[in-house]
Structures are given as C-alpha cells and as structure tokens.
C-alpha cells in the first residue's frame, strides 16, 4: 500500500472516530469563532479551546492550511490527548484531543460544544517562528478531510460550508462561521443575502511546502478571466490565469499573504493602468514606501463610505457580470497622514500562483466557501451595506 493510501486510511479512521465522539445531546446548525488582525504581523488570529482541562489556543488562520496544528513541545498537557501513531509532512505527530467551539444561530454565539476526538498535528515549537506573538499554532481551513471545516461539519452533521469575515481593525474581532447562514451583523444585516457566486477550482498539484506526491492542493482557487481598472480591461497574458498541468498559474485566496501578490507582467499592467486612472482624477503619485511601489499623496483623495475615492479594481470571473469589486478600503494602505499606497505587491516573473488575493483585499468582505458544491459566494465590501466584519455581536445568547 502506498504512503498516500496509508495516510488516507488513517485519516478516514480517525475522522470516523471524531464523528462517534462528538457531543450528541445537542447538535448545532452552525459554529462561530472570533478572529482578530495582529498589528505586528498583519496575520489573522482565531481562538478555540482545546485539551482537558480546556485551554484557550490562539491560532493563526490559514485559509488553505491542510489541518490544525499546535505546538506540543511547550507544556502541552491534556488527559484526553491520544497520539495517532504516525507523522505528518510537517514533522509533527498526528493526535486527537478535545476541541471546543461555540454554537451560533447566526446572530450571537450560543452554548459551547465539544468534539472529543478532533484530529490535529502535534508540532514542534520552531514552527511558530514568524507567527504572531502569543499564538500556539495554525488553524487550517483547507479542503482536506482533516481541515477544520470538514471535521466540524462531520462531527455535527451540518453542511460542509464555512464563511470568513475578516475585520480591518486590530482591536475589534471579525468572525468565522462553520455551517450555513444566516450570518447577521449589527444592525441586523444578514450578510449571507445578495452574494455573488463563482466556481471554486481544485489545483491538481499541491501548493504546500511539503506534501504527498499526487496530492491535490488544499487551497481555494477561483477563475479570474480578466482584470479591469475603473471598468477598463488591462492587457494580460491570459494563459497565466489558468492552472497548468504542473499546478502553476491561476488565482488563489490567501489569509497568510497580507496583500495581493501578482506575477510581474500582471503587476506591471495593473499598476500602469492604475497610475494612469489616478492621474485622470488629479491624484498625485509620490515616492514609494516599502513594500509598496505605487503611492499617492492624500491631497485630492476624498473619503467615501467604501474608503478613499480612488480607481476601482475589478476581478472578472466567469463572465462580465460576475465581478469581485475592490474599492478603496480594500486597495489602499494609509502609511502616514499624507501618503496612501496601493496594497498590491510584485510577485516576480515565475511565481507558483499568478494571482494571490491577500488579506487586505478580503477585509470586510464575507466569503462563504461551499466544499460540497465547490462554490464561493462573496459580498465585495460590506461597507457599502452599512456594516463591517467587526459588527458580529459576540454577546452570548446562551
């Protein structure tokens, strides 16, 4: 039996056990966890409870991560910990333990629920290097059998859907829902309504730093077909927007990249057009501020409900009517009182993925990932609907 087949068998057995040991007296329709932007790293950090007795774990959210992993070298003590007697590609040990999260009716968090045999990787401390201060691991939301969305859905028999809503604030929580909507934000706005739908693609070749040969990518890819600036298409080598047989190219969504990263020719075409459209609005370009190349004076830039009044960026998907609109709140970074920079960076000439939509571009956007149907439903900015991702009411209803 091949290594990948053995790994699949182990995953399947332990996922079945997690179903058997989920709390059965109460089956929620959905779950909710908070997520907050870390000011030092721009990473997004969520919290769950784990172990016996329960301990709050702060975890960096990795949208395309294959599983939950936690540092076990630093005083991981739990009476319910059980090793799975095999190792993962990160060098850690697969194990099971209790995980506890809050249920939700879509408006508030409800009673906590437990999964008694949640499968995760017990990893070494050095993997925490580069992560936000105070975190103990990463929460992988990728499309695998042991990613958080699939394990939680299986444990409580709800839809294999989850939704992210990242706050731009470093002092107010955004939210991640597991399960279907409603997803309500103050003042009583159900952000799951009026979403645009597009297909999710599976990259047949893993994009992880370490993986089993033949394993597909756990990350979430969408089909961008063209890019417009202020409704004007920019010239692109469209072959870069497709995924080739070796897994190169395409467009993915990432929470670990703080800003959108573009292949060099796409970046050059976009920034050239952006600077031209900004100049037509009398917006003045100024000296670059690392890591950004394209920066502007705030003079002549008005403020609007959806951020600075700057040229819009439109990602065109299946057709001209399916468009992810990126307005000023999701395109600009205010580096000081006088300077705004375009929050997009150059990924060089041969990146693995041509377009990586990063954290800034996701903030205050509701994104619902449907793993069963391979569909993404997205809102574009909620600021236009007079709410934000920081407006979920975390006051408990229970």
Automatic annotation (TrEMBL):
This is Peptidase A1 domain-containing protein. Residues 44-379 form the Peptidase A1 domain. GO terms for biological process: proteolysis. Gene3D superfamilies: Acid Proteases. It comes from the Eukaryota. Residues 1-22 form the signal peptide. Belongs to the peptidase A1 family. It is found in: Secreted, Extracellular space. Keywords: Secreted, Signal. GO terms for molecular function: aspartic-type endopeptidase activity. One of its GO terms (cellular component) is extracellular region. The keyword Secreted applies.
